[in-house]
Write a structure and sequence with these properties.
The chain has 123 residues and is an alpha+beta fold. It has helices at residues 12-23, 75-87, and strands at 2-8, 29-33, 37-41, 48-52, 67-71, 91-100, 103-109, 115-121. The protein has two domains: 1-65, Roll (2,3-Dihydroxybiphenyl 1,2-Dioxygenase, domain 1); 72-123, 2,3-Dihydroxybiphenyl 1,2-Dioxygenase, domain 1. Strands 2-3-4-1-5-8-7-6 form an eight-stranded mixed beta sheet, with helices on one face. Strand 7 and strand 8 form a beta hairpin. The two termini are 17 Å apart.
Length: 123
């Protein structure tokens, strides 16, 4: 059900050193490293942990820049989860669509403004 956990960071270089060392215990390695985010996953590719600069450009806090990523089995499932969240009174954080080749996603916030993403990654 969970694909990854995304945590805000104000210093990606320091976060990279910390998580490289911490996650080696889990045999996790970096699978993505950009100017804005770094993602680690274990060899089985299940749940990942990422750090990022908050999208809104503000200082990262224990909630700003954080997101729970949910794993979908298909594009249709991603759309259904998103539409269900919106129908339950949640707010849109990004309508369903392809974010990059092979990655289909949608984003929403719960009533407490916690951010969620629902992801389908084709192989």
């Amino acid at each position: 059900m969970i694909s990854n956990v995304l945590l805000g960071s104000n210093d990606l270089k320091k976060a990279e050193v910390f998580y490289d060392e911490l996650l080696v215990i889990f045999d996790a390695k970096q699978t993505m490293n950009t100017e804005k985010a770094i993602l680690w996953k274990s060899e089985d590719g299940s749940v990942g942990i990422a750090v990022c600069k908050p999208h809104d450009g503000l200082v990262a806090t224990s909630g700003n820049g954080s997101m729970v990523g949910l794993k979908a089995d298909s594009k249709e499932m991603a759309i259904a989860v998103y539409e269900n969240a919106i129908s339950l009174g949640e707010s849109c954080g990004g309508a369903p669509g392809e974010r990059r080749t092979g990655v289909f996603a949608a984003y929403f916030r719960d009533l407490d403004k916690n951010k969620f993403g629902i992801f389908y990654v084709s192989s």
